[in-house]
């Protein structure tokens, strides 16, 4: 059986099932083999209390001792508790909003309860367990697949099993690597990730496959870099004589960090090796103008330049700023986003494909298939953490070998940047423009909200403006989190009733969003109640207060980004974090925020506390292809994999060359980073 053949060729897969599998992203037999479980259910006959893991579901046979009376929790949920016993250990089972669950239990009877068991003092606790009618005496590990639609885990298991019965997955790492790192074979790993025979085997399988992912990831980044370095086919730009005039025309002097980074970029532009540079700079360090200067030089050399931002708000803001700064230098600048009217789009696209020099500022719309840059010299992507490796390479493919500049305000600790962006050179703007005051950051418990508003109102009286950020748009069922709607309604009637306030969130039409932002910019609104749509880049120097509701819900880097929306002018600014800091981790996180204004330090702490997957949105976007691995958690595997990849890529051993050519061939074929030969 060919593992690249379509899934419908598998016995038992009819058109209906095929469609369902397609919905899960499974098109070929290989896709199915790489469709890893997201979790496992451990059916453990006699788990020792010490073996019980909080991470995994387990089935435990418990005897009912007594029922507690239902109680209402603070947020209005009904809590049902049953006391049980597992041999001599007390087990407390709790359910939310399922009072009828008691009818399924009888005192003195035993039940097999499946759930995640937590050790609390000397007893076990399990939330929302289900009764299963499977014999709990078998030792078994059942895969739980990430599912879409009405397909079940057992259907997937059956299909995977039938593939594995008829093939052996051939090995694709050299034997010496398996030996050196004590890795099991690819075949064994694939079998055990789907059907682990023991917990140890499952661990071995995960380790092997993580190594595989991170090895392939490293190879891919390095090949991208080598390809660019070897290329020698980049554009050699010259220094425009007008650069000096532009600098003079700027409304401020560049900081020395900005000047240094501009120099590094201009040197790259002069070279025949295509530029591939990451500019890191804390929020407010002035990255935008650095990008504009680079764009200016490319334009004056007769080439086209594109600048991509992650949101329409940001794109329009850059557009306005570019118009202002580059005004008087005879530069053709266009804005292209999803909401550009069709007629306009056609006009702009025609201009782009004509090859005339142009600066196009926009959103993802710029990398759509039907935008044909014919003379692209530079691509700038702002707030890079929103764009993955895949998109980066897609962009590069747009032009012949354009220079690439990526800008990010999510500082990445050097060690990590080395691996995460090993295809990029890095410049750092480590200085803020002069005259900025330190943003005063304070934490408030939920119940001192009035104090927060008083502070904000005081600032408004002085002529300043206020942002209020909430984690949700609309109220959710359990009312735990504050929403834009709720806070807006409260404030419009209450504390802010004498002022003009508006809502802003991602579900609004782009035009409406822009309208609100502009009203705020022009000073017609005293406050906006918003979701994190204002997180990136929005620049309103008169705003001096940032209130963040349910601050414990946000990552530190995200809080830092949000905080960066204030303190952009000459006024003393405040970031007021409102939330619940009950547990120690939250307390620690909020302390980091109130004590530090240093984005690099904060990012490092954030990484330690949360892991990279969340921080860079790698997991969610799937762009990185890292399905099992977390760059921080698995940093040790990444280091080894990356070293080995480098060694193999740089060696002239024919065996290795063959391996690399296999990998590169398969990279294009396989959507994921685990490749087969
Ligand atoms: P970020 O690095 O977060 O993208 P911006 O480029 O938006 O920051 O710049 C933040 C603010 O600082 C803008 O209002 C910009 O005009 C201003 N600015 C940038 N460079 C300087 C400078 N050298 N001196 C004074 N103000 C500057
Ligand atoms: Mg910016």
Automatic annotation (TrEMBL):
EC number, UniProt record: 5.6.2.4
Family: Belongs to the helicase family. RecG subfamily.
Function: Plays a critical role in recombination and DNA repair. Helps process Holliday junction intermediates to mature products by catalyzing branch migration. Has replication fork regression activity, unwinds stalled or blocked replication forks to make a HJ that can be resolved. Has a DNA unwinding activity characteristic of a DNA helicase with 3'-5' polarity.
Keyword Transcription in record: no
GO molecular function: 3'-5' DNA helicase activity; ATP binding; ATP hydrolysis activity; DNA binding
Keyword Nucleotide-binding: yes
InterPro entries: ATP-dep_DNA_helicase_RecG (IPR004609), DEAD/DEAH_box_helicase_dom (IPR011545), Helicase_ATP-bd (IPR014001), Helicase_C-like (IPR001650), NA-bd_OB-fold (IPR012340), P-loop_NTPase (IPR027417), RecG/Mfd (IPR047112), RecG_dom3_C (IPR045562)
BP terms from Gene Ontology: DNA recombination; DNA repair
Protein's name in the database: ATP-dependent DNA helicase RecG
Keywords, comma-separated and alphabetical: ATP-binding, DNA damage, DNA recombination, DNA repair, DNA-binding, Helicase, Hydrolase, Isomerase, Nucleotide-binding
Species name: Clostridium manihotivorum
Lineage, broadest ranks: Bacteria, Bacillati, Bacillota, Clostridia, Eubacteriales
Record-annotated Helicase C-terminal domain positions: 438-608
Top-level class of the enzyme under EC nomenclature: isomerase
UniProt cross-references to NCBIfam families, sorted A to Z: PRK10917.1-3, PRK10917.2-2, recG
Pfam families: DEAD (PF00270), Helicase_C (PF00271), RecG_dom3_C (PF19833), RecG_wedge (PF17191)
């Amino acid at each position: 059986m060919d593992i690249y053949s379509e899934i419908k060729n598998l016995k038992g897969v009819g058109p209906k099932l095929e469609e369902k599998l397609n919905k899960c992203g499974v098109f070929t037999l290989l896709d199915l083999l790489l469709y890893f479980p997201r979790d496992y259910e451990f059916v453990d006959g006699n788990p020792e209390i010490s073996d019980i893991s909080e991470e995994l579901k387990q089935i435990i046979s418990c005897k009912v001792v007594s029922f507690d009376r239902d109680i209402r929790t603070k947020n209005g949920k009904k809590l049902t508790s049953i006391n049980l016993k597992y041999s001599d250990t007390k087990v407390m089972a709790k359910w939310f909003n399922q009072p009828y669950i008691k009818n399924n239990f009888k005192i003195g009877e035993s039940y097999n309860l499946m759930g995640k068991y937590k050790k609390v003092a000397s007893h076990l606790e399990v939330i929302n367990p289900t009764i299963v009618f499977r014999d709990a005496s078998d030792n078994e590990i059942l895969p739980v697949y990430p599912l879409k639609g009405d397909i079940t885990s057992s259907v997937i298991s059956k299909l995977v099993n039938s593939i594995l019965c008829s093939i052996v997955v051939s090995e694709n790492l050299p034997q010496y690597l398996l030996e050196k790192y004590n890795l099991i074979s690819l075949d064994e790993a694939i079998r055990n990730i789907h059907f682990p025979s023991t917990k140890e085997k499952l661990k071995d399988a995960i380790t092997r496959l993580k190594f595989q992912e991170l090895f392939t990831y490293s190879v891919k980044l390095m090949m991208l870099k080598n390809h660019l370095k070897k290329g020698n086919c980049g554009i050699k730009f010259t220094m425009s004589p007008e650069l000096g005039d532009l600098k003079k025309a700027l409304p401020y002097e560049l900081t020395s960090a900005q000047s240094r980074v501009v120099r590094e970029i201009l040197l790259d532009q002069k070279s025949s090796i295509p530029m591939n540079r990451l500019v890191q700079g804390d929020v407010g360090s002035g990255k935008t103008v650095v990008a504009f200067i680079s764009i200016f030089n490319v334009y004056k050399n007769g080439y086209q330049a594109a600048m991509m931002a992650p949101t329409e708000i940001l794109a329009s803001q850059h557009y306005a700023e570019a118009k202002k700064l580059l005004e008087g230098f005879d530069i053709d600048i266009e804005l292209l986003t999803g909401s550009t009217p069709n007629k306009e789009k056609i006009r702009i696209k025609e201009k782009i494909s004509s090859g005339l020099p142009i600066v196009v500022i926009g959103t993802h719309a710029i990398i759509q298939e039907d935008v044909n840059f014919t003379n692209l010299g530079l691509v700038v992507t702002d707030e890079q953490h929103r764009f993955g490796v895949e998109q980066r390479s897609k962009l590069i493919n747009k032009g012949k070998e354009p220079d690439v500049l990526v800008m990010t305000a999510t500082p990445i600790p050097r060690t990590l940047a080395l691996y995460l962006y090993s295809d990029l050179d890095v410049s750092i703007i480590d200085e803020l423009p002069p005259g900025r005051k330190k943003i005063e950051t304070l934490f408030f418990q939920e119940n001192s909200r009035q104090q927060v508003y008083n502070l904000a109102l005081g600032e408004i009286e002085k002529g300043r403006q206020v942002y209020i950020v909430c984690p949700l748009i609309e109220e959710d069922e359990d009312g735990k989190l504050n929403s834009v709607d709720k806070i807006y309604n409260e404030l419009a009637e209450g504390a802010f009733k004498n002022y003009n306030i508006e809502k802003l969130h991602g579900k609004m039409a782009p035009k409406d969003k822009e309208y609100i932002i502009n009203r705020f910019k022009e000073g017609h609104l005293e406050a906006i109640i918003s979701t994190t749509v204002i997180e990136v880049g929005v620049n309103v120097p008169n705003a001096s207060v940032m209130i963040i509701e349910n601050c414990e819900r946000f990552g530190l880097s995200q809080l830092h980004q949000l905080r960066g929306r204030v303190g952009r002018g000459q006024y003393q600014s405040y970031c007021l974090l409102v939330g619940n800091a009950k547990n120690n981790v939250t307390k620690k996180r909020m302390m980091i925020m109130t004590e530090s204004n240093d984005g690099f330090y904060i990012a490092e702490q954030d990484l330690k506390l949360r892991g990279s997957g969340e921080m860079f949105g790698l997991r969610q976007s799937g762009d990185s292809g890292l399905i099992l691995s977390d760059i921080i958690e698995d940093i040790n595997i990444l280091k080894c994999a990356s070293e080995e990849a480098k060694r193999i890529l740089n060696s002239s051993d024919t065996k290795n060359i063959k391996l690399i050519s296999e990998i590169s061939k398969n990279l294009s074929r396989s959507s994921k980073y685990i490749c087969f030969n």
